[in-house]
Amino acid sequence: SAATKTKIEMVKNAGEAMPDGWAQTKEGQPTNDPAEGLAGSILPNGGTRGANLAMIVEVLAAMVTGGNISAEAPMFGDTSADHPRLGMFLIFIDPAKFGGDTYTQRMAAFTAIIDSEEALRMPGARRAQALATVKEEGLELTEAQVKLLHLDHDH
User: Fold this and answer.
1) Could you write out the DSSP letters of every residue in 15-63?
2) Is the pTM for the entire model greater than 0.85?
């Protein structure tokens, strides 16, 4: 998706507008209002190609498993449904069966290429770097974040 639900909630809690292309209203109209986006739907990343990849995932995770397709699934935060009937499709691949013993070396070389590009990153790399920074430098929270996390001990 173009943004995570958590990121949209953070933007909403900060009282900010979302960038274009993150979400749409319940009526399918583009919106920069995070509350409207959370009530509507989060848009796929990557335009048509991203939407096509999302359709493949949906076919595997919903159609093949008998789970709800996204149009049938309850909205985020909807607690009225007993069970959202979300499907899950797992694929386990043994790289040695396809690429022989070269997988580890080739993956390391591929990762090095991705890491060398400023505009690209491996999944999880930003989170790992942020965690390392927090461990080294600590984490500053705003008053609103402290209250949200119930760390203010005033209640």
Assistant:
1) T-PPPTTSEE-TTS-EE--HHHHHHSEEPPTTHHHHHHHHHHHHIIIII
2) no
